[in-house]
Predict the 3D structure of the following.
Amino acid sequence: MKKSIIFARMSPKDVELIKQVVELRGENLSNFVRRSVKMELARLSFLSEEEMKALGFTKDPSIDNETFESILELKKSHSKEGYKR
């Protein structure tokens, strides 16, 4: 599978903070960003149960049931249609 590159503009303050965090963790920037994105996808329940479990996630209690159901419907429609740009 071909990898894609995503660029995002961030404030210099945020970039500096992220650089400090990855240095303290001994982690590289790309892995930090990938993991952060995966964690947000897990929080929104867009990952499989296995992926969510590996990241230490279950349904986020801060997401109300109506929003959670909407997310699940969106997830189902994406899995049926495949990812579209």
